[in-house]
Amino acid sequence: MNQHPAEAEPSPHGIPDDPLVRRLLGSIRHAARVLAVPMVLVIWWGVAGAVYVLYSRASTQCSQPNTRLG
Question: Does residue 5 carry a pLDDT above 70?
Answer without folding.
Answer: no
